[in-house]
Specification:
binds nicotinamide-adenine-dinucleotide, six-stranded parallel β-sheet, single chain, binds zinc ion, 39% helix, 9 helices, alpha/beta, 254 residues
Length: 254
Amino acid sequence: MDDLIKKTAKDLAVSSKVVALTGAGVSVESGIPPFRGKGGLWEKIDPMEFAHIDAFMRNPAKVWNILIREMKDIVDKARPNDAHIGLARLEKLGILSSIITQNVDGLHQMAGNSDVIEFHGNFAWQKCLACERKIETFRVSLDEIPPKCSCGGILRPDCVFFGEMIPPEELMRSRKASYECDVMLVIGTSALVQPAAYMPVIAKESGALVIEINPESTPLTGSISDYLIKGNAGKIVKEIVTEVEHQMQSRKNA
Ligand code: NAD
Ligand code: ZN
């Protein structure tokens, strides 16, 4: 394990363009449960019944009550953990150029990363179904469910539900970043949701080194990714960043 941390740090330090692809796992240590896997939301609720756009349009109050209200409570309180903080540090060191995230919690931006491509939108905003006006989630009162815009239209999270398209601009920028990077860090994603899971394939096919950080293996492990560093994102990313800084310092002193 220590060898893999050292190797990753070395690869990052000499790379000219590093991109990270992150999933729900990167925010688990901030108290936000993932969808799949142990402790995931899908153990409690059926995704197609609550996270599909058709389900929302059919019964917005039900989706607000069961899914969105709980997410709002959790996301309003969440703060970046060592993984987000470590990735922001890698950007400051001039190593990481952008993050493609499937998360909607805004924690990468809160940690200080400046180029975050949000594949599935952002939960920080709600959008009116009638007039498309946006309002910040923390300003939305839950006294009335579903909450409404001042025009009377129903509010929905500015996120991508199942059954909706990935915003074309984000998809294009993600593909470009994946194609151009020479190292891709794939952190805390089960790599089951397309087209996000295809980004490591693009990176690999264009010659990049693909490194996974996850307590579990994924469909990418042993095929698309060069190796998996098994463990929680906070601990592993912190160790990698410490080692990168150590190696940069040693090089300066040499
Ligand atoms: P996922 O829920 O499918 O999988 C989570 C992955 O994280 C798993 O592979 C799991 O092994 C790993 N993991 C668990 N704990 C970890 C830890 N401490 N460190 C590192 N990895 C850990 O997540 P997904 O692939 O991102 O797909 C689910 C979709 O649901 C996303 O596309 C996203 O839009 C949405 N979602 C977002 C949030 C958020 O914004 N924080 C939370 C839940 C779901
Ligand atoms: Zn409105």
